[in-house]
Amino acid sequence: MVLKILRISDVIGMKIFTDSGDYVGLIEEANITGNKIDSWRIRIGRDSNVSSLLSGARGLIIPHQYIKAIGEVILINRNAIPTREESEETTGEASEMSETAL
Fold first, then answer.
1. At 71, which helix (H) or strand (E)?
2. pLDDT given for residue 31 in this prediction
3. Which CATH superfamily is domain 8-101 in?
4. Given phi > 0 = left and psi -120 to 50 = alpha, else beta, which region is 25?
5. What is the rounded distance in angstroms from the CA atom of residue 87 to the CA atom of residue 74?
6. What is the dihedral of CA 80, 71, 64, 93, to 10 degrees?
7. pTM of the prediction?
8. How many whole angstroms separate alpha carbon 70 and alpha carbon 13?
9. Contact assessment for residue 32 and residue 38, using Cβ atoms and an 8 Å cutoff
C-alpha cells in the first residue's frame, strides 16, 4: 500500500460529503494551530441540503477530528453538521435574548 501525501493546497477546493452521502460544499481554507490542522473552513454549496439548516450562512467551520477520509473527495462525520433541531434551538435562544434586551 502506497501512502499518498497531500499538501494543503491540494485539498483546497475539494468537495465535501457526509458519511451518509450528503453533499456539503467545498474546502475553502485550513485553520492551523501549533503546526497541526485545527479545523477546516467550508463554503456551503448552493445545491447542498445543509444550506437550509444554516439559515443563509455561506460557510461552516468543521473541526479536523470530524474528517473521516481525504481522497478524491473529503468525507466528514454527519455529526459535524448541525441538525434542524439544533438550528431551531439556537434561533429560539437568539429571539429570547433579543426580547429580553428590549
1. none
2. 94
3. PRC-barrel domain (2.30.30.240)
4. left
5. 24
6. -20
7. 0.72
8. 12
9. yes
pLDDT at 3: 75
pLDDT computed for residue 88 by the predictor: 52
E-strand spans in 4-97?
15-18, 23-33, 36-44, 59-63, 67-70, 74-76
The residue type found at 101 is: A
- pLDDT mean for each 10 residues of the chain (102 residues): 81 92 92 92 85 77 93 90 60 44 39
Per-residue model confidence (pLDDT) at position 73: 93
| Residue owning grid cell 447542498 | 48
End-to-end CA distance of the chain: 63
> Alpha-carbon distance 1 to 31, whole Å?
29
